[in-house]
Amino acid sequence: MDRAKTICVTGAGNGIGRAILMHFAGLGWRVIGLDIDSEALAQLRDALPREQALLLTCDTGREGEVSRAFERIAEWLGDDGLDCLVNNSGISDPYCGPLEDLDLADWQAWLDASLTAAFLVSRASLPHLRRAGQASIANISSTRAVMSEPETFAYAAAKGGLDALTHSMAVTLGPDIRVNAIRPGWIETGPWQKRGARSHPEHRDKDREQHPVGRIGRPEDIAGAVEYLHGAGFVTGQHLNIDGGMTVKMIYEH
């Protein structure tokens, strides 16, 4: 009998990470979720069979916390490997204000939450990914890695760094581990927040119309992309825009 596959998702408590975790749990995978939000993880824990899920409170941008989390993960995995890692953690709000007012500590917080976290978690995951054979890593980047709105310096830099880390890891870790990035565009995460923070916003016609597909993105779209990339054995080092076509449409102010 084939063993159940296992995925580890960072930033799993809310939004895109939560959708990815639940998507793969629905496919019968064992799931590992890391998040700084213990309340969100507690709600996920109630929704999943205990033997299927390991949910750990962890600030993935801090080396000591990642090390402690992976001690527990190693125990839980035993001799099994880790089939897929999704580096999704980050600060969701991209706006940091004027450049001249941006503190170094705030700049570093954006980088640590996304880029440093991806480095730390990928490094800790390597022995488990190699044990699985033909494993994959999906780094959740952003369309802001290649295009910007004003005053998003630190967020854009973190995501651009994540894109570069992706192709560097791909050429180094292959053929046993494939590494790709997903660049979400406008994804409405309101329905995928923890209880108490959940929302179901109504979007305007002009919000939908700026996307050639005619709608705003959903976290489920990103979960499907992770599943595709895990199965795409001839795809590595790539950066996949999941944005409804928004980045290829010219938009003029009228």
Automatic annotation (TrEMBL):
InterPro entries: NAD(P)-bd_dom_sf (IPR036291), Sc_DH/Rdtase_CS (IPR020904), SDR_fam (IPR002347). Residues 190-216 are annotated as: Disordered. SUPFAM superfamilies: NAD(P)-binding Rossmann-fold domains. This is SDR family oxidoreductase. The keyword Ligase does not apply. Keywords: Oxidoreductase. PROSITE patterns: ADH_SHORT. Belongs to the short-chain dehydrogenases/reductases (SDR) family. Residues 199-216 have a biased composition (Basic and acidic residues).
